[in-house]
């Protein structure tokens, strides 16, 4: 059983947070199913820069970018 404080916050028990792999200030998805509230762990990052950094995109030097621009190379 969980309680709701004056601000509408609910604290998930530690065992549930650990089972979901939630870390401090993590992100959850909430879904309403009739009269039920379903919480799911989210893979969405709170910080857009962190999400982008986890994409492991190739890194180009300015010289490479300039050369591709000059040669008219585009990514399709």
Beta-strand level of the residues, as a percent range?
A: 15-25%
Give the total of beta strands: 2
The count of helical stretches stands at: 3
Structurally, the number of domains stands at: 1
Strand order of the largest sheet: 1-2
- What sequence of helices (H) and strands (E) makes up the elements? HEEHH
Helix content: 25-40%
Assembly category: single chain
Q: Distance between the terminal alpha carbons, to the nearest Å?
A: 52 Å
What average pLDDT do the residues reach?
82
Biggest sheet character: 2 strands, antiparallel
The unreliable regions are none
The gross shape turns out to be elongated
Class computed from helices, strands and strand pairing: alpha+beta
Round the Cα radius of gyration to an integer and report it: 21 Å
Describe this structure in words.
With 76 residues, this protein is of the alpha+beta class. The chain has one domain (14-71). The chain contains three helices and two strands; from the N terminus they run αββαα. It has helices at residues 14-20, 48-53, 62-71, and strands spanning 28-33, 36-41. The protein has a two-stranded antiparallel ribbon with strand order 1-2. β1 and β2 form a beta hairpin. The longest helix has 10 residues, at 62-71. The radius of gyration is 21 Å and the shape is elongated. The model has no long low-confidence stretch (mean pLDDT 82).
Provide a quick synopsis of the model:
Helices cover 30% and strands 16% of the residues. By secondary structure, the protein is an alpha+beta fold. It has one domain (14-71).
């Amino acid at each position: 059983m969980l309680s709701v404080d004056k601000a509408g916050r609910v604290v998930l028990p530690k065992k549930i947070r650990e089972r979901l792999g939630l870390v401090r200030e993590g992100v959850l998805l909430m879904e309403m199913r009739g009269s039920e509230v379903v919480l799911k762990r989210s893979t969405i990052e709170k910080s857009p820069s962190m999400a982008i950094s986890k994409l492991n995109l190739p890194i180009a030097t300015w010289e490479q970018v300039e050369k591709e621009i000059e040669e008219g190379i585009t990514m399709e």
